[in-house]
Design brief:
With 332 residues, chain A is of the alpha/beta class. In chain A, 30% of the residues lie in helices and 23% in strands. Chain A folds into two domains: 234 residues, 3-Layer(aba) Sandwich (Rossmann fold), CATH 3.40.50; 76 residues, no CATH class. Chain B has a domain of 191 residues: MetI-like fold (Orthogonal Bundle). The chains are: A alpha/beta (332), B mainly alpha (336). The complex binds adenosine-5'-diphosphate (ADP), iron/sulfur cluster and magnesium ion (MG).
């Protein structure tokens, strides 16, 4: 099946006072329609920047996209005008974010923000009254009790879980094809987290959405995703079906990630317990970015390490698998 | 809300009382003999003594303060030695001019300052930002009266574009007094030409008076806009495909304007004080000029009255700002 989202060789740098910060380096990632992919990695590895840059949401400057291509349904997004990108955001690609406390505007009513978003998503084709009825309908769909009242409420009058439901309603009102969920449950407490994940799984199924779920919690990813991409220091180091990641992790980082967990369903943040330091992305190494922390590092790791297929739908970027065919040669 | 307003008004009375004590004390320990002053330069020593007893200047300070308060409560602000008229009458004549000038000035400062601050933030570190920043830095650096003198020198004296001073030209008709603010009175009387002339006379003093406030408003609003534009809810609005104009002018500005409001309130108070200088430069017959003359001639009761009026105006401004804050921010509204 043709990919819905096709990111190829995407590189992005931030021009900072200290120099050029290589935040995203030659990342390639494909997503099929209806597929749910988990994107995991330590805080700061570039998960948010990658997914936002693809849709023109990283401010330029300081950011600069230095190479690559992003295609949605075959249409190139990089280089599109701001206006064209605006037409795509909201209507074709929806996003929900980490902290529902801060992603709603505190001085406007929930309803005002919903109606504005719905009208913007439609490119202005939908009138106020129709947008309101869609909004109320969506509030009902995300199981928010008493939609009429929440519609008139201000964000601070809602709990965190309710706000995340509002944001989900907002994101999905236009029935997009792709949902980017950037740590949507990280800021919520555990019981609410489970409810929101259930809701998302339900809606993704109902609407036939493709989804990228960003998380540093493998447990969260395992609940809603069929495939996982592991990111380290601005690169994707492994990409495999969720079962393979748990049963046969190939990359030493993924292995360390799982080994460091007393229980696989614990946040990846504990990963800090892998010894060694992150590479300096102002002067990134030419070779494997994990070398500074890898017990198996050897001479060959100083040269660039491409992603290679090591099994069906399983790619890994590590010299330990050099005998495997490089990507492209293999049928993935 | 109503309770909050009542509480604030009550607090205002207490603060004004404090202000009265301080001003009264300072004015009375300052050198200068009020009896001598009241008696006039030609009075003999006997006459001065007579006036001292008659006006109560020989009695202890606390008692005199009590007497002063008693008068104040009855609406008697005393008499100006300098004009020889009741202070209340002077105030009624000069205050509206100043109110008009200050309102006009703050209006200019807000009308220019808020959009310029937004513009500077949106074009951060690009040409418009640099130009606007230059403007706001000079607003901080240039003393108000110096700016007033320069404006008067070049634009009025040299180029003749504006009048040198005063509220109206000698050939303009003074409208019947209703509010005392000529622009409004002229409009009420159906005389837009005179209203225009009054505005014309206010442009230079208002420019001098509003420039520092303009600079401050730009600075605060720029900083706030920069901060707000980086907030998560702006990212979310962008992710929904909402257009840049609505994001900047509605979603962001309504948040950024809140701290700017506090600055506007503060600056309004400073402007009231600034009228003492600017009205002097432009010979604008307002309460500032009146206060300056009273201070120079140690005219005690007008000084007291003007201080209390300016104090009350400052406090009222703050109350209005807080109410505006509550009107804009539902979180604040909930707390009061
Ligand atoms: N505006 C910016 N300017 C400079 N560096 C940035 C900016 N935004 C993000 N970064 C850097 O990019 C890296 C990736 O950030 P991010 O994608 O937010 O990480 P995460 O994986 O936790 O979502 C981080 O090291 C961060 O410091
Ligand atoms: S490429 Fe080398 S350094 Fe990098 S993970 Fe593999 S073995 Fe370790
Ligand atoms: Mg992130």
């Amino acid at each position: 099946m043709a990919p819905l989202l096709d990111i190829r060789d995407l590189s992005l740098v931030f021009d900072t006072f200290d120099g050029t910060y290589h935040a995203i380096d030659k990342v390639s990632l494909q997503l099929k329609p209806g597929e749910a992919l988990g994107l995991v990695g330590e805080t700061g590895c570039g998960k948010s920047v990658l997914t936002r840059a693809a849709f023109g949401l990283v401010p330029v400057p300081p950011a600069r996209i230095t190479s690559g291509s992003v295609r949605l349904d075959g249409r190139e997004l990089l280089g599109l005008s701001d206006r064209a990108l605006r037409g795509i955001r909201g209507s074709e690609v929806a996003m929900i974010f980490q902290d529902p406390m801060t992603y709603l505007n505190p001085v406007f009513r929930v309803g005002t923000q919903l109606v504005d978003a719905i009208r913007a998503q439609s490119g202005g084709r939908i009138g106020k009254a129709e947008a309101k009825s869609i909004a109320l309908d969506m509030l009902d769909k995300v199981h928010l009790p008493n939609p009429d009242r929440q519609f008139r409420a201000y964000p601070h009058e809602l709990s965190g879980g309710m706000r995340q439901r509002v944001l989900i309603a907002m994101a999905l009102a236009a029935k997009p094809k792709l949902l980017i969920a950037d740590e949507p449950t990280t800021a919520l407490d555990v019981t609410i987290q489970a409810q929101i994940l259930d809701l998302m799984a339900e809606l993704v199924e109902d609407l036939g959405l493709a989804m990228i779920m960003i998380s540093h919690d493998l447990g969260v990813v395992a609940q809603v995703c069929s495939r996982v991409a592991v990111m380290y220091a601005g690169k994707i180091v492994e990409d495999a079906p969720i079962g393979r990641i748990f049963d046969a992790p190939a990359h030493p980082y993924t292995q360390g990630l799982l080994a460091a967990l007393p229980h696989p369903f614990k946040p990846v943040d504990r990963l800090a317990s892998i010894p060694g330091t992150l590479p300096d992305l102002l002067h990134p190494p030419a070779g494997c970015r994990f070398a500074g922390r890898c017990a198996q590092a050897h001479a060959a790791c100083a040269a660039p390490v491409p992603l290679r297929a090591v099994g069906p739908q399983h790619r890994v970027a590590c010299t330990l698998y050099e005998d495997a065919a490089p990507e492209g040669a293999a049928h993935v | 809300m109503r309770k909050m307003i009542a509480k604030r008004l009550g607090l205002m009375v207490v603060m004004l009382l404090g202000l009265a004590v301080i001003t009264f004390t300072v004015a009375n320990v300052a050198p200068g003999d009020p009896a001598r002053l009241a008696a006039g330069p030609d009075a003999s020593a006997d006459m001065v003594e007579e006036i001292r007893v008659e006006r109560g200047f020989d009695r202890p300070l606390p008692i005199r303060f009590g007497i002063y308060l008693g008068q104040l409560v009855q609406g008697d602000l005393g008499t100006s030695v300098y004009t020889g008229r009741p202070v209340l009458q002077d105030v009624a004549q000069f205050l509206p001019a100043t109110v008009e000038l200050v309102l006009f000035s703050i209006f200019i400062a807000i009308l220019l300052g808020v959009p310029l601050g937004v513009l500077a933030a949106v074009f951060q570190n690009r040409v418009p930002d640099h130009a606007i920043r230059l403007l706001s830095v000079s607003g901080v650096a240039l003393p108000m009266f110096w700016l007033g003198l320069m404006l008067q020198w070049y634009l009025a004296l040299d180029l003749g574009w504006f009048p040198l001073g005063g509220r109206l030209g000698i050939f303009d008709d003074v409208p019947p007094k209703i509010t005392g603010m000529i622009t409004f009175d002229a409009l009420l009387a159906g005389d837009p030409a005179t209203a225009g002339a009054a505005l014309w006379h206010m442009i230079l003093p208002a420019a001098a008076l509003s420039f520092p406030a303009l600079a401050a408003i730009i600075r605060v609003n720029r900083a706030e806009m920069l901060e707000v534009l980086g907030r998560d809810y702006v990212t979310n609005a962008r992710a929904q495909g909402i257009g840049p104009f609505r994001i900047i002018a509605v979603y962001s500005l309504k948040n950024a304007i809140l701290p700017t409001l506090a600055m506007i309130g503060l600056r309004f108070g400073w402007m009231l004080g600034g009228t003492v200088l600017v009205e002097g430069v432009f010979d604008f017959p307002g309460i500032g000029l009146y206060a300056a003359k009273a201070a120079i001639s140690s005219d005690f009761e007008p000084i007291m009255a003007v201080t209390l009026i300016l104090g009350a105006a400052f406090m009222l401004t703050n109350l209005v700002i807080d109410l505006a804050y509550a009107a804009l921010d539902p979180r604040v509204r909930n707390q009061i």
